[in-house]
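## retry 2 of 3
previous attempt timed out at serialization; input unchanged, resubmitting
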Amino acid sequence: MSTSQSNPSNATVLTQVPALIAGIQKYFPNGSFTFGNTAYTTATLTQALQSLANALSDLNAAHARVKEAGLTLLTMQTQVGPLMRNCKRFILAAFGTSPQTLADFGMQPTKARTPLTVEQKVVAVAKLRATRKARGTTSPKQKLAIKGNVTSVVITPVTQPAASSPTATPTVGASTASAPSGASK
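## retry succeeded, writing output
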């Protein structure tokens, strides 16, 4: 028996197992089989296949329950999540200085920020200035002070070639080189 899939899905196996059981019971009602050095009767083979079908059905039902529970959880988090955050903020505001009371709510007081040392401040300012210089960022007032100067703009007119003559022939006696203006001959 050849299958097109090397690993069929659970849904495929679940549809194949009852058909396999029905076929075995129809064509081998009192048969005995040996698969992989193990002997099976029709009844034991049917029982093993039915246990596989039951396990797959249970798995599908569990997946459906997990999916439903996940959707329920997501709905509840959407509804109750903001309420919980606001409640925590209220408790922190009310009892923020009493760690024992906060512990009764399962919370800890917010840690005080450790002030930076003078050396850390100097390093931070140096990094800030180096980053601004590397990125070329400036303040809005500094940007207003930047003005651009345009020097020597060359405008080249675009001309359309004559479409009437496919090949251009130079006229006899015409000069192909022009002298710069202001130069004497």
